[in-house]
Structures are given as structure tokens and as C-alpha cells.
# Entry
Amino acid sequence: MSGIFNKALMVHLGLIVVLLALHFILPAYHHVSLARIMVLAVYALGFNLLFGYTGLLSLGHALFFAAGLYGAGLSMQFFQWTAGPGFVFGLFCAIAVATLIGMLALRTVGVSFMIVTMMFAQVGYLLILYYNEYTRGDEGFVILRELRVLGPLDLSAEDIRYLVALALLAAAILIKLALVRSPTGRILIAIRENEERTRMLGYDPFRYKLMAMVISGAFAGAAGAAYGILFGYVGASFASIQYSILPLLYVLMGGAGVVLGPLLGTIAMFYLIDIASGMTSAYLFFVGLALVFLILVAPKGLLGTVRERWAPWLP
Amino acid sequence: MTEQKTNSTKTKHFTRRDTLKTLGAAAGLAAGSHLMPLSGRYAQAQSSEPIRIGFQAHRTGIGASYGRWYERTTMAAAQLINDAGGINGRPIEIVTEDDGTDPKRGAEVVEKFAIQHKTDIVFGTLFSHVVIGSAPRAGELKIPYFVVSEGHHVASGKLNRYVLQPGITDVKSQVQSMAPWVGSNLGKKVTMIYPDFAFGHDHRDYFSAAIAAQGGEVIEKIAIPPTEQSFFKYFPRIPKETEVLYHVMVGPGVLTFVKELGEFFGSDRPQIFGFIDSLEAVDLANPGLEALEGTYFWEGFPRYAQNDGANPHDAFYREKVGVDANGASLSDPKDISTYAHMFGCWETLYIIKQGMEAADYKGPADRAKLIEAVESFTDFPEGPEHPQGAKIFNGQTHQVFGIQNISQVTDGKLKVVHRTSIEDSLYEPEVDYTKMAF
# Structure
């Protein structure tokens, strides 16, 4: 099963081509929704690297998403940068924040790690509110449409937005696939399964966990920067605890430790909320019901169950 | 074991050939579906009857208490409009979607209205962050977005030509119009207590400038962190020479704030002035709120029927939206309305009607004509369609201006003691949306 053109790679490449094909055939509403879903799925893919593969449950990932969002948004707002430099700066901010937080938070484990990451995210959220003069706090701000361009591409156009979101998702999927199938990915899984044994084998778990944290933060930051640039809004709600929980739900639903699980989870969660909220104000009840049902019948998530029963080769 | 075996026999190994076949089939599907260009899929046909109005409602989330009453007011006005023959001879249909008072979901809901529900316009949003989060998508999808938010974001020029606020005044004009009366009647040395986020900062900045123009000054600004649960520790910062305490606390802590404020001052207190935003949908008879007796509030539309003959249209409007003389639901006296704000939905719907009639609106192709028609309006006379009072509209800034009320808590009820003029609330335009392309 080794070699470039193996089954797993073909499935992932095939999915990217299918998503490209959907660009030409999807009804408009699903087309615009899928663009949004793909950006959020990048966020969840990054979360999954830390949670699903390395075994670290962060409850503060909104901080990294917001670092990318505000890094891009504020630089575009104050320096009149266009999307390219804005995105790169947003990504840089997320990587810097993830490195710093990782070095501090990874000194803790288990529940402590969850609490410490959550508290750092809360600090980030309150800083956004505190520096209201620059961030407009909870209200947020709009990124000027004329700055949302990448060379000749107008990123506020529906077709360009979809294709850029797809390009970002494709890059995220392929990077993550390469990573989890590499020796480094095996070490991350080893840390998840038994950190002490991994240490005994001569690896430095802290170093690898920090690397996973930084890459995961970079995915979140890339998604945040892209979200602001593609949809034109930057606001503090994206830094709130709710947006730290969302990728966890996406991953749990789609399947932790499966590369494509977060994408499937994001799609499922988006449409679950979209359809249920059209029928009742108690739509979160249905989200909860779905998660309980999932835990009962498919505790490893949708794709996790598929891998367990039918496709053990799925990375 | 049997099941396992069955499963394993069903397992099909995915070869490169299979993948290529699948991709080929997908490509064939695309080709066979007579690919419609993307612009065609996003375009709308001329809608036939009825006129569909997307109502972006805060049914859940922090804005739910406002959203509930915004929805009731909208439905009442829509019913009246339909009873009177609709718009251009067509009935209107309100299509409601919950935005969860969340800007991300708000933007998604705008997309849903524009593309899936194919509504003619989107209407009714209150919370500023939802408006600002949704506005870019409204502009990109070229769908008129009539907000009822009272935020200054529309008139500040940071949104786009598709966003209008013709049915409710903005916070800048409200705060500015309060200052002359506060300075003349309550005092000129003001201490402000406000939440440390955008809403509070707007009050701080606009009121500081407005009271300075009256010869007064803000002698202390006390920003309360949004997560604060208890407020006692902030009160010693209120200077002794304070003549007026100006407060705009909002959120679940407001009852604690008022209670602790009352306990701190006792009977020896400065004049207290606040915005009713803090206590919309809250019963003034709540235990602890006795401390508010004798204090003053801004109200957009007075919650309690005044019976002073100043507003001949209040009784009609009050009955139609199902509110009693105390501002509570006719069916449940404990269900307090958001009376100071919700008239904005009523008045905005009538302006949409007026705009569609002026533009001879027939369908989405006439959306730009609708916006131009509304931009051309200059004033809205007081009447059943504008029960809160007469208004002046600025087409350049897409913002309306109107009278404001200052009420005093007297015997547990709000009694109007001053009505501002429209002129008190005017300020220099900061944007000209009419120069922006559609």
C-alpha cells in the first residue's frame, strides 16, 4: 500500500476533485454554504491534529482562529494591505501566539491543559474587548471590499471565494495527510497512546506536542484569516468560548483521528443547525440529541466508525 | 462473525481505476446538467406575489427578549399592511430566520434569504455586531438590508449602500439630544458608568462631547469589565462633587448593578440618568429596583401610556402590537415589552412599503430603484405609520432622526418629563452613500 498513488491518497485527491466539480453543479445556496464550510473545516482539521492525533484537548483554539482573523483584519484596516499580505500576517500572528501559548500550556496535562488553554483564550477575548479603540470590541468591523483582492482576483465574488476556500482546504488536507503518514505523525500518535513509552523510546514528547500545537494553531489562524478576508467581517464573537467548542463538535461528529473526519463533521453540523433552526428555536436541542445519538451508535464519529468497520486503511 | 464476514465481502478496494471512473462520472454529471453559469444560479427570477420580506430575528441568544417583541411588532404591522391591500397590490409575506444573535449565523441567514428563500429584501436586525457581520454579505448579494439597530454603524459610513436604517434613530443622535436637558436640569458635573465594550464606549465618547458643548464636563469615566458580577468596588470612584450619574449598564448584571447602586447611595445620591436599554423587557416592579424611584431614563417610545394627549397614535399602535398601558403583553402582565425600541420594526415596514410604491417595485430587478426611492425621502410625518413621532431622513447617511423622550420613575412607572426636538439630535453627515455604486 505504499507509494504515491495509494488508495488513501487517491481518496483524498478524489474528494478535492469532487469538491471542485461541485463548484459547477451545486445550487447557489449550497455553493455559498460550502465555501464557508470549507474554511471552517480547515479550522477543524487543525484542531483534529492536536486532539485526534496527539491526544491534547484544547478548549482555547478560538484564540488562534482570532489571531489569524484579527492579524489579517487589523493589518488590512490600518495599513491598507490587500488580502495576500493580510493573510500572511494573520498566519504569522497565529503561529506566534500558538508557539507562546504552547510553551506555557504544555507544561500542564489533561484537565489542567484544557483549563489553561481556555483561560488564555478568554484573556485573548477580553483583550479584544479592552482595546476597543482599535478592534471595535464586540461590535467588530468590516474589511473594506476593495482590499479583499488577491492580485486580479476579487475575493468577495461568489465563484472566486469558493475556489479560494477550496484551495485552502485542499492544501490543509494534503499537508495534514502528509504529516500524519510521516514518521513524525506516527510519533504524535504514539504520544497520544502512551506518552511515557514514547519518551522511553528516546523521543522528546514536549517538542513534538509543541510542534503539533503550532501546526494546529497555524491551521486555525489560516482559517481565521481566510474567514475574515472572504466574508468581510472581523468580530470578537469569533474569539469567544463558543468558537473553541465548535471545532471540538465538528471533530467529534466527523471522527477524531481521521483526516477527513472534521470536514464531514463541519458539513453535518452546519446543515443540522441550518435545517433545525428553520423548524424550531430549540435547534441546539437537536444538536445535543445528534451528539448523544452519535455517542451511542458511533462513538468514534462518522468517519471513525467507517474506518473501524469498513476502511481500516483510512488515515 | 457472520456480520463481520458480510461486511468484509462488501468491502470494495478502491483502485486508481475506480477513482478515475468516479471522477469521470462526476464530470459527466456536470456536463449533463447543462452547466448553468454561476451568475445564473445566484440570480433571481422576477418574483410573483407575494412580496417576500426576510426577517432576521434574534429568536435565541442574548437578543432573544428583544427579538420576541420585534417579531410580534413586525407581524402586527404586516397584518395591517396586508389588510389594507398590501404593497403595490401584492400581499407581503414575512419569512423569519433565527440568527441566534450571532454575526456568523447572521451572515448565513442573509445568504439564506437572498439565495434560498429568494426574499425581496432583508429586514429587522437589532444587535450591532449582527448587523455589521451581515452587512458585507447583503452588499455582495445586492439585497436591500433594512436594519432596526439604533447603532451608529450605518451613519458612520462603514457599511455599504444596501444597508439602511430609516425606522429608528441611532445612538449618537440619542445621546447628543439628551445632553442639553441633562445639563440644564440635572447638573453639569457628570460621572459615567458604562460597560467596557463598544456600546459603552459609544456612550462615553458621544455624551462627553455633547455635555462639553453644553458647558458641562464628564469628571470621571468608570468602565466596567463585561464579565463583572459585583459593582460595589467601583462606586467609591464616583467623585463627591458628581451632580449626575450617567449609567448604561446592560446584560444579566443590570439588576445587581441597580440594587447595589441603591444600597451604596441610600437617600443621599446625585441625580441618576440612564438609558432604558438596560431595563427593556424588565419589570420595574422587580425587587431591588425600588432604588430607581426618582431617577431618569431615555426612552425611544414611552413604555407606559402617558395619557397626556401628546401622542394621539400610541393607543392604536399599543393595541395592535398587543401591549397594555404598562408596557406588558395583553396576554401576560409579566411579559414586559421592549417598547422603547420595537416601534422601529413597525415604522421601517411602512417605509419599505412607501419605498416600494414610489419605486413601482416589481421584483429583485428593482432593488436599486427601491434604495434610490428610500434615499430620496426626507421626512416622515407622525401618524399611524409613524406612531413614535415625526422623523427626518437623511438619504446620504441612510439614517433617520426623530424626537426622544426623557422619563422619570414615579410611583414605579416611567413618566415623560421632556421630549426633545428632532433638531437636538441632528449632526453633520459622515458619509454619502448615494455616491457609492450599486
User: Anything to note?
Assistant: Chain B touches chain A through 56 residues (CB under 8 Å). Residues 1-16, 25-35 of chain B have pLDDT under 50 and may be disordered.
